[in-house]
UniProtKB/TrEMBL annotation:
Record has Isomerase as a keyword: yes
UniProt entry keywords in alphabetical sequence: Isomerase, Pyridoxal phosphate
Pathway info: Amino-acid biosynthesis; D-alanine biosynthesis; D-alanine from L-alanine: step 1/1
Broad enzyme group: isomerase
Reactions catalysed: L-alanine = D-alanine
Protein name from the UniProt record: Alanine racemase
């Protein structure tokens, strides 16, 4: 994980020809406050795994904490240790993948226990140290990824003594289809989770991710775990996005050239001008997370106008047809992600992926500017 300090990050002004990634910490904080109101009276965490979905955990996590967030989730131990360094003591930092075998992690981090073996290891360590260990117990109710399966759950339900030494903060599960409100698995998972909790010692519960928070009262819990919605990805696909956009990627036009009808552009000569055309080349490509699968399928935003991407996205450069836009000249910038018609969700749809992957693919060689913090 990169550990750019907020001060460094804030200071980044684009050099000539460098794309500018602007991250709106005010929008992220406001999204968290909206979700916190929606999750009340339960608490609402901030999921900041994968460098806060690519936006920079060193800036995002303190902004969430300033907004009132007291519970954070990361994917792995190294992310947890880095986040503790960023936030200092106080907020809960839970590690979704738990601690690797043999690693005790750090008393200041909370492992998510994903199997009975992990339960046993943490409980034994707690008893050996004579100090209760905080943990979150993960029950698999339909993901078949991590968490106690039905057999393990039955064994634990029959023998609560296995938990001796553990201070269970939450029992959690994770929804597989929360972004599809009509999917029958949602209600099934909620029911399985309720049954699982009923067989365990009384404990607070953690259920919904971003989309799960929009599924209704049956998905409320003591701790919601939104990630993507904080960053502006639509948690309710199919209906209007209630979240604020938090990301804007603007790439400068390096050159504009005129080509005759019949000329081709880019690798593979995959696009042929049907008329005399003006082609703008901008300084971002697939190495910057502007996915190659967008080739010929996306548009950028220039002052509210859609500008069609033509030909293949290459590693460092992408070409746009600006024939109808004489005011697009070198030095101007096109908004590739986070503008009109090119939100992360819209770009994702063009690329055949999801907004999450657009954000986590954002490259490392942008100037990054954090605003609204
Ligand atoms: C990533 C993750 C979340 C957050 O999911 P979003 O869909 O981004 O809100 C919540 N819980 C678990 C277990 C996760 O892995």
């Amino acid at each position: 994980m990169t550990r750019t300090s907020v001060a460094e990050a804030r200071g980044a002004a684009p050099l000539y020809g460098q794309p500018l990634l602007t991250i709106d910490l005010g929008a992220i904080a406001a999204n968290w406050r909206d979700l916190a109101a929606r999750g009340a009276p339960g608490a609402v965490a901030g999921v900041v795994k994968a460098d806060a979905y690519g936006l920079g955990v060193a800036a995002v996590a303190p902004a969430l904490r300033a907004a009132g967030c007291r519970h954070f989730f990361v994917a792995c131990l190294t992310e947890g240790l880095a986040l503790r360094g960023i936030l200092g003591p106080g907020p809960m930092i839970a590690v979704l993948e738990g601690f690797p075998p043999g690693a005790d992690g750090d008393a200041a981090l909370v492992p998510v226990l994903n199997s009975l073996d992990e339960v046993a290891a943490q409980a034994a360590a707690a008893r050996a140290a004579g100090v209760a260990r905080r943990a979150i117990l993960h029950i698999d109710t339909g993901m078949a990824r991590l968490g106690l399966d039905a057999g393990e759950l039955a064994r634990l339900s029959a023998d609560h003594g296995m938990l001796a030494g553990l201070d269970l903060l939450y029992v959690m599960t994770h929804l597989a289809c929360a972004d599809e409100p009509e999917h029958p698995l949602n209600a099934e998972q909620a029911a399985r989770f309720a049954t699982a909790c009923a067989g365990l010692p009384a404990c607070r519960r953690s259920l919904a991710n971003s989309s799960g928070m929009f599924l209704g009262a049956g998905f409320a819990s003591d701790l919601a775990r939104p990630g993507c919605a904080l960053y502006g990805v639509n948690p309710t696909p199919g209906t209007a996005n209630l979240m604020r956009q938090a990301v804007r990627l603007a790439a400068p036009v390096l050159q504009v050239r005129e080509i005759p009808a019949g000329a081709t552009v880019g690798y593979g000569a995959s696009w042929t001008a049907s008329r005399p055309s003006r082609i703008a080349t901008v300084a971002a490509g697939y190495a910057d997370g502007y996915l190659r699968s967008l080739s010929g399928r996306a548009s950028a935003d220039f002052r509210g106008r859609p500008i069609p991407l033509v030909a293949r996205v290459s590693m460092d450069l992408t070409t746009f047809d600006v024939t109808d836009h004489p005011d697009i000249v070198p030095g101007e910038s096109l908004v590739l992600i986070g503008g009109e018609g090119c939100t992360p969700d819209e770009v994702a749809a063009r690329a055949g992926t999801i907004g999450y992957e657009i954000l986590t693919s954002l490259g490392a060689r942008y100037a990054r500017s954090y605003v609204g913090g």
